[in-house]
Amino acid sequence: MVYIITKTFNSASWIYYGRREEGGRFLPKDFHRIKIPTAAALFPAEMLSWPPRSYAERMYNIKRWTKMPKGGHFAALEQPKLLIDDIRAEKGVSTEKLDYMNEINEYLKQMRVFYEQAS
Q1: Are 44 and 70 in contact (CB under 8 A)?
Q2: Share above pLDDT 90 across residues of the chain, in percent, rounded to a whole number
């Protein structure tokens, strides 16, 4: 809805059209694996299918690979609790950080309400 209101739908969706037309992405010959520890939250209703973990591990230093039970492309709006809980589990969030994380969770809930009302 945001893209329609701001008249940015065409430019925001171009990446999906371009990827489909080009046949996906290929690793360049001089590609160096990204060494930064990476977590992936795989939501089943995503617009594009997820690659196998073995393929992602060729590119990234995968430390956490979570297959979510529900949700999709707008996971933070659709399933904020699942996403926040997974981030907390990955980062080992301490109790002093929980208040801040709860504020973020509340914000995401408000955004979800806005998104549902706008649809």
Answers
A1: yes
A2: 16
